[in-house]
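Consider a typical record:
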Amino acid sequence: MTRSVSAEDEYAGQAESRMSLRVRHYATTLWERFAPETRLQLLLPAAIVLCATIVLLNAKSPTAAVSLLVLLFIVPLVVAKPSWMIILAVALGGTTLPALVPDRIPVGNFSLYLFEPFLIIAAVHGLLTWRTSWRVALPIFGLAVFAALGCIVGFVSGNTIDKIIYDVRPLVWVVAAAVLGTVVIRSPKVIRALLATIRWSLALSALLTLISATTGLALNGRTEQASLTPTIDEGNATRLLTSSYYLALAVLCVTVVLILIQCVTIRSSAMFWIPSLIIVTLSFSRNALLALAVAVLVGLLSSRRIKPFLVAFVSLVGVVSLAFLLSVAAPVLADLPGGTFVNNQVASYTERVVGGLRPDALASDSSIQFREFEARYLSLAFSERPAIGHGFGYAYKPSLTANAFQEDYAPYYSHNFPFWVLVKSGIVGALLFFLPVVMVTLRLLRTSSVILLAAATPLISYVVISFVAPVPLGTTSCMLFGLALGASVAAAQGKPIDDSLADSVVEPLTVLEVESDCRGAASMETVAPAIRK
């Protein structure tokens, strides 16, 4: 009996051992099927959660806890996926966030925006892995020389260090993002990830913008009445200028161009232009019309066919007709749920954006008058030092006391960015900064590259509106400007990517379900040769 029990136990032990070996075999086989980077991705969340728990249990202050959590998140991510840094920078810098979510971290006397650490790390990694031709590197180097020249002249002129840093800080991000732009344009994988990130970022930003416009939810950014003559009238719509505005404007310009050259359709690109249009419309910004006009012009000149002109004309007629119908139907809409909101938006947009373009409205517009006030002092300062300027940190106009910004920083800031460059770094600095833009524009007139068209359109639009809104000096728009500049410079120099990757680039550029190429062909095989040009 005992022998029988022992035999059963031995058999059971052998069966258990075989089962254990089989489980380990299957587990090992499953683990080996994952690529090394995938294994790291599986272990990374567990490690971060463990470290975060330890930090939260031992941190003595919320600020220290948040800082350590960010550090613990960044360090392993840099090791595992350094290319994700630029994706996170764009996501954090171009997404609208509620005011309850801080968009910056105070560090001493400065504030570190959430996207800046990721941009710094991405730029350092990009420089360490930078492999490019001198034709691409030279314009980017010129931007760096421009920033350094402004700092040197400002320091020699005796300008205060904190104001020099205030002036040069966004330009440093322009240079860093330009380096990344030359790297990103050569990586189809990163382009695909960026497009996916931008799509979801715009969707979230548009949703929060709509919620804020209807419920009054506080968002990070500027919030003011949309009327040119603000009153206490509750009928005025709310103007929402958030960090997603310039990203949405760039995406809108690109989709307009791609639609005009028939690389995408209106329906297939809806996932991009609909949220972008919501964000741009609720910003009630007149410079958006200027940027879109530039995009339409670029698309028409690039196409050189009659159909895009018809598409643009029909679209314009459709927009005007819709606005007219909404105005006529205003009494009917007022009795419907949400009709009052729609009427307020239409009335405010008509009064501020459309009506604000009339000569009499421009003559009485306080913002236009303030820009003319700036222009007089800019002209006087430029005439004093036209060659190399006064350097960064130079106060070209007197301080005003309307608010803290106008008292402390407005003397150093200008809405006219090209004129600002001339005052700060003179003709030499202006040549260093704008020469790459001129080179890209001239190249665009001689090529049909879809890649160059997609990269250069937002760049040219940004430069044009920089005469009234300084995009390169914006908190997050400086990064977008630099990315567009770097990508355009790289795309303008012959073949921006290897021939072996050309077919792969078709997908990110046509993630909008492209149905035809820029020549109207119906098959994807003909798109790659067009992109290689």
